Amino acid sequence: MFRKPRVAIIATGDEVILPGRSLKAGQVYASNLLTLNAWCRKYGLDTWLEVAKDNAQAIKACLKRGLETHDAVLTSGGAWSGDRDLMAMVLDELAWQKIYHRVRLGPGKAVGFGRLEQTPVFILPGGPPSNLVAFLQLALPGLMKLSGIRNFKLAQSPAILKETVKGQRSWTQAVFGCLTVENGIRYFRPRKGISRLKSIAAADSLLLIPEGVARIAAGENAMAQVLA
């Protein structure tokens, strides 16, 4: 028997606050945090949410609280390796056992995974598309494995491309979209919009274009992951 893992979800940023509080100038709600929490709850995982300020000591303290009573840690933001990417820097300072950091997946390249005090830690980038894609493709299957479910995959649906989509030579490209049925035929239409959050919120599926595939033409068959 496997117990559902308890997951600590930590977002970083001086400007980030939990919903329920009044926004001040320059502040934003922790949308990534709530999205990750919703996905974890969907699969029955117990969660604890926290926001850490953009300084090393605050992040260390937050990680310590999360590690004390949880089976896995998800972090959002600061995952790259620049001067202001404090989560990656703090974990290196704490000598975490890094398994990987940065992968050929776009959006989502900055994702990392390792162990800190023997607890699995997934670090996710802060941009909403990168955050969600990295979580769905790498972190969620890992959390499901902790739950006793091996080889976890999101539900998939065959579909015909309504529009041509472009891939990348050097990484797997993820495209958010919507599945529709017309005359008994299921189609995948990529989401396009000015707002990344609105595009993601309106999407019900995700298409992965394999690394090295330059394009998949409209009218061709594809297999989309179902997000709804």
Distinctive features:
228 residues; six-stranded mixed β-sheet; globular; alpha/beta; five-stranded mixed barrel; 2 domains; 5 helices; Beta-clip; single chain; Molybdenum Cofactor Biosythetic Enzyme, Chain A
Distance between the termini: 28 Å
Count of alpha/pi helices: 5
The largest sheet has its strands arranged as 4-1-5-9-8-6
Gyration radius over CA: 18 Å
In CATH's first tier, which class of the largest domain applies? Alpha Beta
Instruction: Tell me roughly what share of residues is in helical segments.
Output: 25-40%
State the major sheet: 6 strands, mixed
Summarize the helix and strand pattern as letters. Answer: EEEHEHEHEEEEHEEEEHEEE
CATH architecture of the largest domain: 3-Layer(aba) Sandwich
The overall pLDDT, averaged over residues, is: 94
**How many separate domains make up the residues?**
2
Topology:
Blueprint lengths: L5 E7 L3 E2 L10 E2 L1 H12 L3 E7 L3 H14 L2 E5 L9 H8 L3 E5 L3 E2 L5 E5 L2 E6 L3 H19 L9 E6 L3 E2 L5 E11 L2 E6 L5 H7 L2 E5 L5 E2 L4 E6 L2
Parallel strand pairs: 1-4, 1-5, 2-3, 5-9, 7-12, 10-13
Antiparallel strand pairs: 6-8, 8-9, 10-16, 11-15, 12-13, 12-14, 14-16
Helix pairs in contact: 1-4
